[in-house]
Every structure is written in structure tokens, then in C-alpha cells.
Design brief:
Layout (H helix, E strand, L loop, with lengths): L1 H8 L2 E4 H11 L2 H12 L5 H12 L8 E4 L5 H10 L5 E5 L2 H9 L1 E3 L6 E3 L23 H15 L1 H7 L4 E5 L4 H11 L4
Parallel strand pairs: 1-2, 3-6
Antiparallel strand pairs: 4-5
The chain binds adenosine monophosphate (AMP).
Length: 192
């Protein structure tokens, strides 16, 4: 959804999860540090994420509008972000936990180009865009997803109050068909 919306709105899509997976693939120190947290469904420490975002936002392609995906995930991350960027809108996707679990365990991703599929709507084993063999993310199993949801409730849900006080949260029903949901989000972001 973040990819669709950022494409339509001309925003740079920054996903901290994708950035961490790229570091793991490279075998960097940061990747090694992040791996065990991700495998357990825990959050990577704030200072690692904040440092990574500070660097990313200095790059030339990040000087226009940005759509953050999966970030911030804690109040300290949001406070750090407030010091370096103006946040215009927050999209809160609302979906029952059982639907999340079902979507995540049927998700397949391309390890080469990052394209995302779901076995219910795409039954091939190879990526439509680049031909690589699709995989299931190691953290997309039911046990880890439930732990990620618990961590979400504990550490990320307070952000709805944090940004709610600023009056910039838009609640979106994320059980809608994909295109309709993308239309709703683009509308609240002011698509012309
Ligand atoms: P995602 O691709 O957004 O589902 O993220 C996958 C995993 O990466 C999460 O379960 C966390 O372990 C880690 N992660 C991604 N973004 C963050 C973040 N902003 N703060 C802490 N951990 C993160």
C-alpha cells in the first residue's frame, strides 16, 4: 500500500524494514545487529533506527516529500523525527488481528526487487517483475506475527495518541479492496 500511494503521490517511499533487510543481505554490522531482533518479532533499538533515518534523510532524493512505512514505531523515534522533519499526516490502517495474521502468512516477497505478492491472488513461484524465486519472509510465521502485534500494541499504538494530539491522524479501514483503500489514502493526503 505504501508503494502504491507513494508512486501516485510522487513521494519517496522509505521503509525501515526494507532498509534493515538490505543491511542483512549486505552482511553489514548494522544488519547483523538487527537480525536477531527481527527474527524474534522484537523492535530494533531506537538509536539504530534513528541513526539510519538521519543518514537517509540527508541524501539528495529525500529533500522533497517522503512517505515513511513502518516508521516511527515508538514514541522516542517520533520525538527524534520531529527534530528533523515536519510530519504532515499520519495514516492509521485499521484491520482486525486475524486478518493481519492471515495476510502476513500468505505473503510472498521477491528477495531481489522487493515486490510483494499474496498466494491468494498470485499463485506463481517467480516474480512477475524480475523473475527471481519468491520467498516467505522468515518473520512472516504465525508465532512471530503475533509477537509483532503484541509489540505493536505496547510500543507503537501510543503513537496514535502522540500524533492525535497534533490533529494529523487519519484512520483508514484497511479491509477494503486494495484500489479503494489506495484511493481513500490518496484523497486524505490531498491528491488532486
Ligand atoms: P516491517 O518490514 O516494517 O514489517 O519490519 C520488519 C521488522 O524490522 C520489524 O518486526 C522490526 O523487527 C524491524 N523494524 C522495522 N522498522 C522498525 C522501526 N521503525 N523500529 C524498530 N524496528 C523496526
Amino acid at each position: 500500500m505504501a508503494e502504491r500511494v507513494s508512486d501516485r503521490m510522487g513521494l519517496l517511499h522509505i521503509s525501515t524494514g526494507d532498509m534493515l533487510r538490505a543491511e542483512i543481505k549486505k552482511g553489514s554490522e548494522l544488519g547483523k545487529k538487527a537480525q536477531s531482533y527481527i527474527d524474534q518479532g522484537a523492535l530494533v533499538p531506537d538509536e539504530v533506527i534513528i541513526g539510519m533515518i538521519e543518514q537517509r534523510l540527508k541524501e539528495p532524493d529525500a529533500q522533497g516529500g517522503v512517505l515513511f512505512d513502518g516508521f516511527p514505531r515508538t514514541v522516542p523515534q517520533a520525538e527524534a523525527l520531529d527534530k528533523i522533519a515536519d510530519i504532515a499526516s499520519v495514516i492509521n490502517l485499521e484491520v482486525p488481528v486475524q486478518v493481519i495474521v492471515d495476510r502476513v502468512i500468505t505473503r510472498r516477497v521477491c528477495p531481489n526487487c522487493g515486490a510483494v505478492y499474496n498466494t491468494k491472488t498470485y499463485d506463481k513461484d517467480t516474480c512477475e517483475k524480475c523473475g527471481a524465486t519468491l520467498i516467505t519472509r522468515p518473520d512472516d510465521n504465525e508465532e512471530t506475527v503475533l509477537e509483532r502485534f503484541r509489540v505493536y500494541e505496547e510500543q507503537t499504538a501510543p503513537l496514535i495518541v502522540y500524533y492525535g494530539k497534533k490533529g494529523i491522524v487519519h484512520d483508514i479501514d484497511a479491509t477494503m479492496p486494495i484500489e479503494q483503500e489506495a484511493d481513500m489514502i490518496c484523497q486524505v493526503l490531498g491528491e488532486k
